Amino acid sequence: MKKTAWPAVFSIVCFCVYFALGAWGRHGFVSEEYMNYLLAFCYGFLGIAFVRLCTHLIFDVMYFRRTGREAPDLLRIMFSLVAYSIVGTIILASVLKYNVTGLLATSAALSVVIGLALQDTLGNFFAGAALHIERSFKIKDSIKFGERAGEVESVSWRTTTVRTTDNSFLIFPNSLLARDLIEVFPYDGLHQHKVEFSASYSLSPRTVMDTAKKVLRDLEDVSCEVQPEVRIARFAESSVDYQALFWMKNYMKVVDVKALFRERLWYAFYRDGIDMPFPARHVLFERVKPGRRPQAICMPDYRCIIDGIDIFQSLTRSEKDALVARNNVRIYAPGECMVRRGEDGESMFVIGRGKAEVRVSANGTHSTVAVLETGSYFGEMSLFSGEPRSADVVALEEAEVLEIQKPSIQALLDENKSLAETFSKKVTERLAGLERYADSEEQETILVEEKHLLDRIKNFFNLSG
Ligand code: CMP
User: Structure pTM?
Assistant: First the structure.
């Protein structure tokens, strides 16, 4: 307001002098021409006060209230230039009685000369104006230009000043920003950032992804509005490389957040006894059983799990040992379909770790028949009866299963034919559970299946009697 007060005071003083001289002028003291000049001064100061007041109201009050940030200098300068030109022209034409048309013609010629001399400066000026009109970026937004990035501090009629993360200032000529590609990170919006890290091949992706997501969620500056994501970027020579995607508002903190993420991840891995990968070459000579998986993944005790499974209760110790020893372990990612309805299947699965959902789909929607926990089994219906798979079985979380193949069951049934009855009872129970989700035609098939199940099992395994 000080800026407005001074010209206003000058204007009042000039008006007082003007009127005082006007009174003397009647006695021929001051000529009319000088009086006109004085009046022009009065209006000139008044005009300056008026333009400054308008600038203050428009930019410091209205603009600030609407946008919550300071108006760019360039806008103020442009507004003032136009307003002062109008005030000046009015004073010249109405007070000093100048022929403004002639002046405009002269100024056009002058403009060409000035324009040629100030080509670069004017280029920057108009580039700055274009950036404002297009609203390419605003004060407080962050911009990235090539390798350089920072927060926009001010946009003047010639340059844009950007503050970097190390608190130095980059001053870009406006014409450069208008011409080249810039990346803008709005200060009031979320933007995605990526950070890469590596983990050992011996860790399951789910373990790594869950740990990294937890670390990201705990970081203060990472937004919780959009959940962070972690995905595999590549299988590198000595490690699996992951990419963590997270969302932030404050671009100026990205470098710090990435550093903090790496630090916290190290601690999280260390707490869980997980080694960080480093370039290494292991030369191992080993006879590997197909389907065996890396040692570092914690192995469930399948022998113990088999002890708790009802259909295997009557087996001897050595038969149970053989079941575990002769079959392979498989690992599935969350959401993977382990068994698909309608497919042929000659194996059953014992869940060593994780959960699975038995589901049947119809008309694009699916119904959950059962959720199977660790220690449960599935796939026995096809294995025992030779029928196609009766439902989809999907891993709800990372799941590890022992896949028992037909030859193992065949060996058991050859030794102990009464097992067929135990198997048929269990399958009948599960068929009953499926009935609810079947249409009338399928229900009839299920009933027929139930009736002849024992015979089918005996047939399928070539058991006489
Ligand atoms: P299978 O038909 O080979 O493949 C799908 C599997 O889903 C099936 O074997 C069973 O193991 C399982 N399943 C089907 N119905 C049920 C049920 N009602 N309860 C639990 N598991 C089931």
Answer: 0.58
